[in-house]
Structure formats: C-alpha cells, structure tokens
Amino acid sequence: MRIERLSQDKIRIFLTFDDLSERGIQKEDMWQEVPKVHDLFTEMMDQAYTELGFDATGPLAVEVFALPAQGMVVIVTRGKYDHHYGASGEEELPDEIYEMEVTLEQADSIVYAFRDFEVVIEAAHVLVNSITSAGKLYSYNDKYYLYFDPKEFEEQPLASLVAVLAEFGDSSPVTEAVLDEYGKTVMAENAVQQICTFFKRQE
Predict the structure, then answer these.
(1) Can you provide one Gene Ontology molecular function annotated for this UniProt record (predicted)?
(2) Do 78 and 151 fall into the same domain?
C-alpha cells in the first residue's frame, strides 16, 4: 500500500492485488459494502494519518479506480467545510466518523505519469527490449504520460510492463479521453520505440 498527498485535502492510495488478497478481499468486493472493505478503508485512513497527518474526519469523497493487472487507485478528498463532528481527543475515532460518497470506475487502460522527461527516456530504454510497437506519449499538467492499451499484450508481458512503469513513474487514473482532449499528444504511436530512437539514456 502506497499513500501520497495530492493536496491539503486530497490523497491518493495505490493498492496492489497482493494488498487485497492479503486481507482476503477480491477485486469485485470493492464494489460492495462488506466488512473487510470497511476494515481496509479504516486501515488506509489510519496509515494516511500516521504517514501524512491526513485527518479523515467528516465527509469524504472516495474514488476507486480498478486498473488492469495493477491493482486499485483510491482518491480520497476531504470536505472543505466545517463538519458537526468536532475534534476528538480519543485515539480511535468511531466507525461512523467516515461519511463516504464512493465512486467506482473500471479503467480499461494503463497510464503512468512521469515528472521528468529524462525518467521517461530511462523507462523506455528498459521497456524497448520487450515492447517494440506500443504506447502513446502525452504532455499534460506539467507531466508526461505514457498510455498503453492492455488488449495489445498477453498477460505475462503486461505484468512486466506494469512492473517497469511502476519503478519509474506513478500509476494515474487519468483517461485517454482526458489526455486527448486536454493534453498534448507528443507521440501518437510506438512511443517506446520512438523515444529510444531519438533520445539516448543518460550515462
């Protein structure tokens, strides 16, 4: 489980399928109100408070994105207005302190964000040995995004692809449609091969 702060009132949690299976949760369970999922959410909020000081009291908007072959991305946004629950001195907050509005989406693409183009070059040079004709490269919100359609891969190469991307970049719930409409298309096809052709990795 990896947690990062996106803003003062928003965090992103990345759950692998191993994280889910260790807790006896199937991917399909995330679409249901089951005690194990509630326990998982409580654990996530406890970890967010411990690591980031993110206080999850009051109303929360929770977006869950299921990513193929990767796991889940959970975006938690805290309500920006004062709530009638006051600050509690107790170490453990009651379960009902979480007022969640949950949105669930099934992502049908693999998108990873990179803060620096040099990192994209590094990732491409690792990928090019196994991927020669796939990928789109976008620029959006001061980041670079590599997009892949999982239908173009067999299961094992797909897992290897995700492993490399996760090492260099951050899994992103941004869709291809958003990137097409609001981002800039840098390379419309065969991005991995093109990057390696035109850019050498740093020594």
Answers:
(1) protein-macromolecule adaptor activity
(2) no
Q: Please give the tally of structural domains in the chain.
A: 2
Q: Is residue 203 part of a domain?
A: no
Separation CA 106–CA 102 (nearest Å): 13
- Taking residue 143's Cβ as centre, other Cβ atoms within 10 Å add up to 19
Q: Per residue in 49-107, pLDDT tens?
A: 999 999 887 788 887 777 666 678 788 888 754 444 344 333 343 344 445 555 555 55
- The CA distance from 169 to 60, in Å, is 27
68 and 140 both lie in a single domain: no
Q: Which of 30, 36, 81, 87 is nearest to 57 (CA)?
A: 87
- Residue-wise pLDDT for 117-144, tens only, equals 999 999 999 998 887 778 999 999 999 9
Query: 97 is in which domain, residue-wise?
Result: 2-106
Helices first, then strands: H and E counts in the chain: 6, 10
